[in-house]
Amino acid sequence: MKKGWIAIVVTTLVVMGCSGVKVSQDYDPATDFKSMKTFRWAVETQEKTGDPRIDNPLQDTRIRAAVERLLTEKGFIKSADGAPTFLIRYQYVLRQKIESDGTSGGIGFGIGSSGRHGGIAIGTGNSVREYDEGSLVIDLVDTASDALLWRGTGTQRFTEYDDPAKTTGDINALVEKILAQFPPQE
After folding, report:
1. What domains, with CATH codes, occur in the chain?
2. Beta strand ranges found along the chain (DSSP E)
């Protein structure tokens, strides 16, 4: 019974580790992030990639709404007119990944009931799966020079939902984890 619980706990931890969002950030340390107050999108809509899973106007709207909401919650103001202190760009990409459980093996021996017949079996196993990994890259750039000031990246297993609420929730969680790093703590 104890071994069963250990297997369940290990399996749960592995699944949770694989399904989580991995985030990273990079930024120009010379940037005075405290002086950044207003923002605007660099482009009205994202460039087309040729992948219909990415070139989805509904997804574009969800990503932009999540970014705007979180920046506003952090005290930044969306600039309707005038020059904002920074511009926002994003890019969403999908990459095909392969995961493997590794190699396993087993050996079995057996003999017949009267000792006359026997057998040896050798087996190996390897489970390989393909999946799509999505990466959302959010860039904050200088309005005047177009220089990159901050980049946040979030990567997770790509999932297609048949429920718009689940899609929105997944995008919100991804954007929240990315922007939790901004502004950088110095």
Report:
1. 23-95+135-179 (3.30.160.670)
2. 22-27, 38-41, 77-78, 86-111, 118-142, 148-157
How crowded is residue 89: how many other Cβ atoms within 10 Å of its Cβ? Answer: 17
Residue with structure tokens 């309707």? 80
What does each of the 186 residues of the chain score in pLDDT, given as a tens digit?
A: 555 444 444 333 334 444 589 999 999 999 999 999 999 999 988 888 888 888 999 999 999 999 999 999 999 999 988 789 999 999 999 998 787 776 666 666 666 666 566 666 666 667 778 888 999 999 999 999 999 999 999 999 998 889 999 999 999 999 999 999 999 986
CA dihedral 73, 75, 80, 86 (to 10 degrees): -110
88 and 140 Cβ atoms separated by less than 8 Å: yes
Range 32-48 burial, b when 16+ CB lie within 10 A, else e = ebeebebbbbbeeebee
CB atoms within 10 A of CB 66: 21
Please state the pTM of the whole predicted model: 0.75
Neighbours of 92 (CB within 10 A): 23
Enter the tokens of residue 173: 């969680």
